[in-house]
Specification:
It is built from 17 helices and 12 strands. The chain is α+β, with helices and mostly antiparallel strands. The chain has 2 domains: 3-304, no CATH class; 327-480. It has a 12-stranded antiparallel β-sheet with strand order 4-5-6-7-3-2-1-8-9-10-12-11, sandwiched between helices.
């Protein structure tokens, strides 16, 4: 586990008591019985409270999906009361091995039969429960009249065993996640929690810190001592008349010594792994006993960025089924699809790489391509679907191009360093001194060339998508006589 990966994922987790709201019934504790004992990551959303907030009412999040998306609330299903997402995350690559989602509702507004009609799937029985296989490789199961659960990837045997275990037992969470669940029942509206116990390898962390060359020996020792004592981290968001957030990192011991280095190390880690949210730059840092806290306001763009990191494999598959007519006309379905797709394109257009590190953009383009693939395609104009598929492929091509450019840069730098090491030994101490300076300049030149190539390639792909979007918009407007 590298220091950048560790601090990068440590910055996205559960919540902070600073934003406490009135205590409610311990609903998430009941819901947590559906979480497998291997889980190390939880996301919990108090949907009813979010949708009842001043900003949600003002901007009509529950009725206007476009406004909800633009505000970053598109990952919240307005027909649910609570949403829980659990996963076992590989912290080295920040990818889940599996993901479980639980949707709870006070009224049976979403029936699995309607979802089946929407996605064209057949209802089958798994462990005695009605289930359907969704197009995006997930099983959706009707646990009871008020609870829908899902498992991804859609391994039928694993899903059956998970359902039996969940129905027969109580919560099997780790101590850290169990504490986050108790906290979620009475505090912030959106909570994500990561259990980081036993994640860090002291030897690997130290090697990475030294190799990075950005900290002094004393600073390396300070960070190493703190990182190896991290228990977990939390991200919390409260939504009312404005959006506020907080990150806390929990330690086994006082983190006072490392506090001055937290922003420097953590923000660099977030940028390198495509997790940096622009609003974090202005957040205030505080040091509490056994805890470091960052807190501040969130813009709509910041909430959208965080929402893109909170993935549910089934929300888009049946959000369009909420209380609607299965046989909605193509004009309506196409308009909904276009609005959602356009919002994703515009968000990524703002993130098209400029003269910065290439790494952050690889993950953003990959995430947004998956979001496009998850959009409901039922009864959508074929030409529009073709454009959506083209956009998704273009985003993935951008990811591959950025990764390849970064790899070529590293290979070139490695080759150049080897050649210059041999050259410097051949020409004595004056030549050695000169060649060392040359290596530094060459590395900077290679970095600049790679960034320029990445920027040019990404912009070219994005410009092509925008051009085709304009053509598709004109065609749809003329065809359906409404403004797309």
């Amino acid at each position: 586990m590298t220091i950048s990966r560790l601090l990068g994922m440590a910055s996205f987790v559960a919540v902070l008591a600073v934003f406490a709201i009135p205590t409610v019934t311990a609903q998430f504790q009941k819901t947590s019985k559906w979480v497998p004992d291997e889980a190390n990551t939880l996301v919990m959303v108090r949907v009813k409270q979010v949708m009842g907030s001043d900003i949600a009412s003002k901007e009509k999040w529950s009725s206007d999906r476009t406004k909800a998306f633009q505000s970053g609330a598109s990952f919240i299903p307005p027909w649910a009361d609570r949403l829980l997402i659990a996963s076992h995350t590989d912290f080295q690559y920040f990818e889940p091995a599996w993901r479980v989602v639980v949707y709870e509702q006070s009224r049976n507004e979403i029936e699995i039969s309607k979802v089946s009609q929407r996605v064209g799937g057949n209802i089958e029985s798994i462990s005695g429960k009605d289930a359907i296989l969704l197009p995006n490789d997930a099983y959706l199961v009707e646990a009871d009249t008020q609870t829908l659960v899902s498992m991804a990837p859609a391994n039928r045997q694993a899903t059956a065993r998970w359902l039996r275990d969940s129905m027969a037992s109580k919560s099997r969470l780790s101590d850290y996640l169990a504490a986050a669940v108790r906290f979620a029942d009475k505090n912030a509206d959106v909570i994500a929690a990561f259990d980081l116990a036993d994640v860090a390898s002291p030897d690997r962390v130290e090697k990475r810190l030294v190799a990075a060359g950005k900290l002094s020996d004393a600073e390396v020792a300070t960070v190493l001592a703190a990182v190896t004592k991290i228990n977990g981290a939390t991200l919390g968001i409260t939504i009312n008349n404005k959006i506020t957030g907080a990150i806390k990192i929990d330690f086994d011991g006082a983190p006072t010594a490392v506090a001055p280095l937290v922003k420097k190390v953590m923000f660099e880690a977030l940028r390198n792994h495509g997790l940096m949210i622009d609003d974090f730059e202005d957040w205030e840092l505080k040091v509490n006993p056994n805890q470091i806290v960052l807190m501040g306001g969130l813009s709509a763009a910041g909430l959208r960025q965080i929402a893109s990191l909170i993935e549910s494999p089934v929300i888009e598959s049946f959000t369009s089924a909420q209380g609607g007519d299965v046989a909605s006309d193509m004009k309506t379905c196409s308009k909904q699809y276009y609005d959602a797709l356009n919002s994703l394109i515009e968000e990524m257009r703002e993130r098209t790489p400029k003269a910065t590190s290439l790494k952050p953009y690889t993950k953003w383009f990959e995430r947004y391509s998956r979001k496009i693939d998850a959009l409901s395609i039922l009864n959508v104009d074929p030409a529009l679907l073709q454009f959506g598929q083209y956009t998704s492929s273009s985003f993935r091509d951008t990811t591959k191009m950025l990764l390849q450019t970064d790899l070529q840069k590293n290979v070139a730098k490695s080759s150049y360093n080897r050649e210059n090491d041999w050259y410097s030994y051949g020409y004595g101490r004056y030549g050695s001194s000169y060649s060392y300076d040359g290596r530094g300049r060459q590395r900077r030149d290679l970095d600049n060339q790679a960034r320029q190539q990445g920027e040019i390639g990404a912009r070219a792909l994005m410009d092509d998508v925008l051009q085709k979007k304009s053509e598709v918009r004109q065609m749809l407007t003329a065809k359906y006589k409404i403004n797309f």
